[in-house]
Write a structure and sequence with these properties.
The complex is a heterodimer of chains A (about 240) and B (about 170). Helix content of chain A is about 75%, strand content about 0%. Chain A is elongated and about 75 Å long. Chain B is built from nine helices and no strands. The longest helix of chain B has 26 residues. Chain B is elongated and about 60 Å long. The mean pLDDT of chain B is about 80. The chains are: A mainly alpha (about 240), B mainly alpha (about 170). At the A-B interface, helix 1, helix 4 and helix 8 of A face helix 2, helix 3, helix 4 and helix 8 of B.
């Protein structure tokens, strides 16, 4: 067959013949990204359905309330699409594209946060906090931890979809779908959360996105190292 | 590959027969001619087997398997720093078939030494295109760069290779 040692080749064939069950081909990166959209939409809608739309949505208008979240959600799906490309040995995207998409997502999230704050500053925050007698730090914690948990669930679900990923940089691929999960959750959460202060938005919601990015990177790294070790094989 | 995904051992053997020699040479190049290329080849095909579900028929099989081989090599190296060291320290390059464009310019040994002097990025793009016959789009997908960057690397590599071989010619004269 080749100049590969016959013994090694025989061993390889034995292992392969031993486990040759039919498998279903992975979907294309775009389709894989689209498959994640309903799950992401469902989980990011949970808090919205539970708390309802923020009180200042009339001040913000439909574009900044729903349109901005739709844009964030689309960016999240794009990040997942890039992660799927990153996991395909012959289909990687240029590094510039990957970093530009991450930078664009960061800028859009910060831009939406600042725009929201500039149109509806602390008013609704104070009204809500005053009426409920809830200290602001508690709301920071609720939103930060809540969206991290929701994002974490999404990252775990994505890691299941990405179990066949063959990324050269598995931590980067994981960070990308982690960023997608965090951004998707934030897209829903921001419509429900009445707090628009920069401290709360960037500190609690931003930190939750960063936490899901880190979680995704760790999961990606774990899956990558598990793949490189593989099951009890014939080598080493 | 589709038949292999459906569970055909013969299909795997066909893929192996077709691709293993080229993949082995590529791994030998990546590993700086080290004897580990046989282990890496075996690991590449094992990885391909374990991950056969990850293949989508829209991709050509050859760049997918070569990309996987590169992946296996890099995962083994664990860090980009060590990857650079391999290329920087390579003195014992594996035997390459003479590139068609450089055939008339120098001996096999001169060609080998000239390729060793190229930057790792240029040498890899040059060999993937001229030796293994990948298109610049396929190289771009394997290396995570744009097709224009792949073309530029291969083209600059070829220019530097010609210059190095001309240098050998002048020295001989």
């Amino acid at each position: 067959m080749s100049d590969h040692s016959p013994q090694a080749l025989e061993q390889l064939m034995r292992v392969i013949a031993h486990d040759l069950k039919a498998v279903k081909p992975s979907p294309r990166p775009f389709r894989l990204a689209l498959q994640t959209a309903p799950i992401a939409l469902l989980i990011s809608s949970v808090v919205l359905v539970s708390l309802g739309v923020r009180g200042d949505s009339g001040i913000l208008g439909p574009l900044l309330t729903w349109g901005a979240s739709a844009a964030q959600f689309a960016l999240a799906i794009m990040l997942i699409w890039i992660a799927a490309h990153e996991g395909t040995p012959a289909g990687r995207l240029p590094r510039g594209t990957v970093y530009s998409a991450l930078a664009a997502t960061f800028l859009v999230v910060v831009g939406i946060t600042v725009s929201t704050f500039s149109i509806s500053p602390v008013g609704s925050t104070l009204r809500f906090a005053g009426a409920m007698r809830i200290p602001l730090w508690v709301m920071d914690l609720v939103c930060g931890v809540g969206s991290t948990v929701a994002g974490g669930i999404l990252v775990f679900l994505f890691s299941r979809l990405f179990r066949n990923s063959l990324a050269i940089r598995p931590a980067v691929a994981g960070a990308l779908y982690g960023a997608g999960a965090g951004t998707a959750i934030n897209a829903g959460w921001r419509i429900a959360c009445p707090y628009s202060t920069l401290r709360h938005s960037l500190g609690a919601h931003g930190a939750a996105i960063i936490a899901t990015v880190i979680l995704g990177a760790l999961i990606g790294r774990f899956l990558g190292s598990r793949r490189s070790r593989g099951p009890a094989g014939i080598h080493r | 590959m589709i038949r292999y995904q459906a569970g055909s051992l013969e299909a795997f053997q066909e893929i192996y027969t077709e691709l293993a020699p080229g993949v082995r040479r590529y791994l030998s190049y990546l590993a700086g001619g080290s004897q580990r290329s046989d282990d890496l080849l075996q690991e590449t095909f094992l990885q391909m087997h374990r991950s056969r579900a990850a293949y989508n028929p829209v991709y050509a099989v050859k760049p997918w398997v070569f990309g996987l081989a590169r992946n296996v090599f890099l995962m083994n190296r664990r860090s980009a720093r060590r990857w650079a060291e391999v290329h920087e320290s390579r003195e014992q390059l594996p035997e390459f078939p003479i590139l068609p464009d450089a055939d008339s310019l120098g001996s096999r040994d001169e060609l080998r030494r000239s390729i060793a002097r190229l930057s790792p990025e240029q040498a890899e793009a040059l060999l993937l295109h001229h030796e293994w016959g990948f298109s610049f789009e396929e190289i771009a997908g394997m290396l995570g760069i744009s097709a224009a960057a792949a073309r530029a690397r291969a083209s600059r590599g070829m220019a530097d290779l010609r210059a190095a071989l001309n240098g050998f010619q002048r020295a001989r004269a």
